[in-house]
Every structure is written in structure tokens, then in C-alpha cells.
UniProtKB/TrEMBL annotation:
<feature type="binding site">
    <location>
        <position position="287"/>
    </location>
    <ligand>
        <name>Mg(2+)</name>
    </ligand>
</feature>
<keyword id="KW-0324">Glycolysis</keyword>
<dbReference type="GO" id="GO:0004634">
    <property type="term" value="F:phosphopyruvate hydratase activity"/>
</dbReference>
<keyword id="KW-0479">Metal-binding</keyword>
<comment type="similarity">
    <text>Belongs to the enolase family.</text>
</comment>
<protein>
    <recommendedName>
        <fullName>phosphopyruvate hydratase</fullName>
        <ecNumber>4.2.1.11</ecNumber>
    </recommendedName>
</protein>
<dbReference type="GO" id="GO:0006096">
    <property type="term" value="P:glycolytic process"/>
</dbReference>
<dbReference type="InterPro" id="IPR029017">
    <property type="entry name" value="Enolase-like_N"/>
</dbReference>
<dbReference type="InterPro" id="IPR036849">
    <property type="entry name" value="Enolase-like_C_sf"/>
</dbReference>
<feature type="domain" description="Enolase C-terminal TIM barrel">
    <location>
        <begin position="184"/>
        <end position="474"/>
    </location>
</feature>
<feature type="active site" description="Proton acceptor">
    <location>
        <position position="386"/>
    </location>
</feature>
<dbReference type="GO" id="GO:0000015">
    <property type="term" value="C:phosphopyruvate hydratase complex"/>
</dbReference>
<dbReference type="Pfam" id="PF03952">
    <property type="entry name" value="Enolase_N"/>
</dbReference>
<feature type="domain" description="Enolase N-terminal">
    <location>
        <begin position="47"/>
        <end position="176"/>
    </location>
</feature>
<comment type="pathway">
    <text>Carbohydrate degradation; glycolysis; pyruvate from D-glyceraldehyde 3-phosphate: step 4/5.</text>
</comment>
<keyword id="KW-0460">Magnesium</keyword>
<dbReference type="Pfam" id="PF00113">
    <property type="entry name" value="Enolase_C"/>
</dbReference>
């Protein structure tokens, strides 16, 4: 399109004249700035360019970053990545060339954005999120986004969402809420990772994570303070018991002392909480990730201990009894993936006991079909939502609605391979999920999420609501 054709199409001559006249009437001290701002509002924004590149995530592994341009500016987003991919989740596209980044490069996904997705989206209205996402889904034509790559599609979808918020001149969380048809927001309870095990750390702890939830805080700012203070008290506790080398951290920033017992880890966290003086205000959550140590139908909690592995298998019933004992001894309110991803029998039984929030991660992989089955069979009562397992903002909104309709708890979650993008913070507020799992209160790619929530709370002022005790049903 030529310049003249563009001017004619958007009737810019008339709009420029109107802007000049408005500047004269306003008697502004800066007519150029006034006219510029007037024109930005007068001309509807469209996507003018989509440019992708390969960057590194927090594990030093390549991921996709996107710059999406409109005539309002440039909007950037990047896709996180997990340590493993389930068979039921959307597929991130990797190059597979072992000679470059050990096969983990994403140049194919980047090329798909620069050559295919960009062409399809240029000229679209960034506020029409569902149309943008559908255009990419139609272009991909596969169920799991394997042609273009879920990492490519997600990064573009997130960038478009940011552009849509800018076009509407509203905060990102508010734009997301409007896309979901919501009118209420809520600052989530943060699930701070304090001790890491499983695939996240090199210690002998089979269980993946021990977290704390400051449900008794009055504001998110106070919740963040509680999490940070508990983290540093835990560092002192670990140093006293195991020495400074026990304070090495896992991939999400949680401490990774060389413990092999879940109880040992829980005792450390309980002592740290006691030292803070917040004992009545902080609860504990654990991510078991039982699929990682399930062998056949048995569970090997010593799988990471070479001298003990295979000697103390637990049945599903044994695991249930263990959880009951832990729930009576510690202030645990949430257990994630207590059984293998295909062990529907035991997770249903345990969930129906109603003793705590039972969160599906590997069980569900944010997959609508798996979520629908779990709802029908009452297999759990909480959803761990990982944005890269789905691939578009529109589909994220849809699965959140499914979970809320089922009266489930909702946890928006980070990945082990994170970036400096704080999108999930606005997502958690806009969708009022109630819980945000972003790792430890340390490391830049983790705290950027928490710091964004501080800014949102400050921006909302008196309208800000920290969900606190209503963390499951906000």
C-alpha cells in the first residue's frame, strides 16, 4: 500500500486537521505532543510487524522471544519451557540439531513466526485476541501445535495480548479480565518454593518441591515480605544443620540441602516458619510430582538414593496413609500430583477425602480433555496451569473457566526454564486465579513475577484485593 493509499484509507488528512484544531482550542503549551497524542487515539491500531528471535531461558536453553509492532509501539513476550514435556500437552518446536545447543535450538520456531505467522497477522486488530489466536491455530492445523510450535504461537499470543491492552489504554490484567468477561480482580497468594528436590535439584529428595503460602497476609506486599523472611530464616536453619554447602539452590531458586526424606524437609520449613513469628499466617504446599518416581504401580521415594533405591516401594494405599500422617503433623493445605499421571484410581480416592487441595499437573497438563475427565470423575480439585502447555491466551481463558465452573482451586505456574517476562502475574490477577507459583523469592526470572504483582497492587490502590484466606475460591 502506498503512502497516499494509506492516507486515503484512514482519512488521515481530516484527522490531522482535527488534531490541529483541537490543539488550538486547548491552548496547549506543547502542540506537537498534543497533536501526537490526539492522532494516536484517532487512528485504530493494527499489527504492522511480528519479529522473533532466539534467546536463552533461565536454564541457559534457547527459547522464543517475540517483538510485535503496532502503530502504538512495540510489545515483547517470551515463552517459558519446562524440564520435561508430557504426551498430552502442546508441543514446543526444537531444531533437533545436536551440534547446536545440544539439539535444543528454536530457529525453526523463530522462522515460522518471521515467515508464516507474521504474514497471517499483519493488519489485524490487536484487541481481537480470539481472532488472532484462531488465525495461528488455523495456520498450524495440528491438534498439539506441532507444525508451528506451541512456543512460537504462545510468544506471539502473549505479545498480542500486551498490544491489545495498550490499544485500549488499560493495564494488562484488566484487558485479560475483559477478554474473559470478568469484572473482579484479585492479587493471588504466592506459593514460594523453599526446598527443591526431584528433577529440580541434585539432592536425594524424590519429592519435587516444598512451598509456603502466606494466606494470612493482609496485602500482597505483606505476603511477599513473609515469603522473603521465611526463605532467609530457612537459609540460616539449613546452614546450622548442614553447613553453607546445604544452601545450594535448585532450578527454581529453592534450597537443595542433601536430604532424602520429605519429613526432613518439612521439619526444616516448619522451623523456619516458627522463627518468623508468622506461624498462624503461613501454610505449606508440596509438589510431589509422583510420576517421576513411579515404577509400574509402585512408588520409590528413595529413587535418588543409590544405596536405598528399590528397597522400600510404596503402594498407592501406602502413599495415601503417608499423606494423611503428614497432613496431621504439618500445616499442609495443598498437594500437587500425589500420584502417577495415569493413577486415576488413587488420586480420585484421595481427592474425595476432602482433606486438602489436590492439584493436577502431570495428571492434567493443562489439557482441556484431561481436565474435563477429571471434573467428571472428581479426580482432583485444583488445576496447575502452565501457559506453554496450552499455547494461546484464548485457550488459557477457556480452561480457567472450566476449572472455576467446577469450583476448583487454580494455580498459575512458572516453568523451570523461565524468562524475564512477567505475563503470568497479570494473568493471575486478571483471571482471579487465587494462587501463583513463581518459584523462590530470589533469582531475577522468579522475582520479576512477584515484583510485578507489587506494582499492580500499588496501581490499584484502594481497589486492590489480596485473596488471602479465600485463595481457593476467590
Amino acid at each position: 500500500m502506498s503512502v497516499q493509499e494509506y492516507l486515503d484509507k484512514h482519512t488521515l488528512s481530516r484527522k490531522i486537521e482535527d488534531a490541529v484544531n483541537a490543539a488550538v482550542r486547548s491552548k496547549t503549551d506543547d502542540p506537537v505532543l498534543f497533536i501526537s497524542n490526539h492522532m494516536r487515539k484517532a487512528v485504530a491500531s493494527v499489527i504492522t510487524k511480528v519479529k522473533a528471535r532466539q534467546i536463552l531461558d533461565s536454564k541457559g536453553i534457547p527459547t522464543v522471544e517475540v517483538d510485535l509492532y503496532t502503530n502504538k509501539g512495540m510489545f515483547r513476550a517470551s515463552a517459558p519451557s519446562g524440564s520435561s514435556s508430557g504426551m498430552y500437552e502442546a508441543i514446543e518446536l526444537r531444531d533437533g540439531d545436536k551440534g547446536t545447543y545440544l539439539g535444543n535450538g528454536v530457529s525453526r520456531a523463530v522462522k515460522n513466526i518471521n515467515e508464516k505467522i507474521s504474514e497471517a497477522l499483519v493488519g489485524m486488530d490487536p484487541t481481537l485476541q480470539s481472532q488472532i489466536d484462531q488465525a495461528m491455530i488455523d495456520l498450524d492445523k495440528t491438534e498439539k501445535k506441532s507444525e508451528l510450535g506451541a512456543n512460537a504461537i504462545l510468544a506471539v499470543s502473549m505479545a498480542a495480548c500486551k498490544a491489545g491492552a495498550a490499544e485500549k489504554e488499560v493495564p494488562l490484567y484488566k484487558h485479560i479480565a475483559e477478554l474473559a468477561g470478568r469484572t473482579n480482580y484479585g492479587l493471588p497468594v504466592p506459593a514460594f518454593a523453599l526446598i527443591s528436590g526431584g528433577k529440580l535439584a541434585g539432592n536425594n529428595l524424590a519429592v519435587k518441591e516444598i512451598m509456603v503460602l502466606p494466606t494470612g497476609a493482609r496485602k500482597f506486599e505483606e505476603a511477599l515480605q513473609m515469603g522473603s523472611e521465611t526463605y532467609h530464616h530457612l537459609k540460616a536453619v539449613i546452614t546450622e544443620k548442614y553447613g553453607a554447602h546445604g544452601c545450594n539452590v535448585g532450578e527454581d531458586g529453592g534450597f537443595a540441602p542433601n536430604i532424602s526424606s520429605l519429613r526432613e524437609g518439612l521439619d526444616l520449613v516448619k522451623e523456619a516458619i516458627g522463627r518468623t513469628g508468622y506461624s498462624e499466617k503461613i501454610k505449606i504446599a508440596i509438589d510431589v510430582a509422583a510420576t517421576d518416581f513411579c515404577i509400574g504401580t509402585k512408588y520409590d521415594l528413595d529413587i535418588k538414593s543409590p544405596n536405598k533405591s528399590g528397597q522400600n516401594f510404596k503402594s498407592g494405599e501406602d502413599m495415601i496413609n503417608m499423606y494423611k500422617e503428614l497432613l496431621s503433623d504439618y500445616p499442609i493445605v495443598s498437594i500437587e500430583d500425589p500420584f502417577d499421571k495415569e493413577d486415576w484410581e488413587h488420586v480420585k480416592y484421595f481427592s474425595n477425602l476432602g482433606v486438602c487441595q489436590v492439584v493436577g499437573d502431570d495428571l492434567l497438563t493443562s489439557n482441556p480433555k484431561r481436565i474435563e475427565r477429571a471434573v467428571q470423575e472428581a479426580a482432583c480439585n485444583g488445576l496447575l496451569l502452565k501457559v506453554n502447555q496450552i499455547g494461546t491466551v484464548t485457550e488459557i481463558i477457556e480452561v480457567v473457566k472450566m476449572a472455576k465452573d467446577a469450583n476448583w482451586g487454580l494455580v498459575i505456574s512458572q516453568r523451570s526454564g523461565e524468562t524475564e517476562d512477567s505475563f503470568i502475574s497479570d494473568l493471575s490477577v486478571g483471571l482471579a486465579t487465587g494462587q501463583l507459583k513463581a518459584g523462590a523469592p530470589c533469582r531475577g526470572e522468579r522475582v520479576v513475577k512477584y515484583n510485578q504483582l507489587l506494582r499492580i497492587e500499588e496501581e490499584m490502590g484502594d481497589l486492590a484485593t489480596y485473596v488471602g484466606e479465600d485463595w481457593r475460591h476467590c
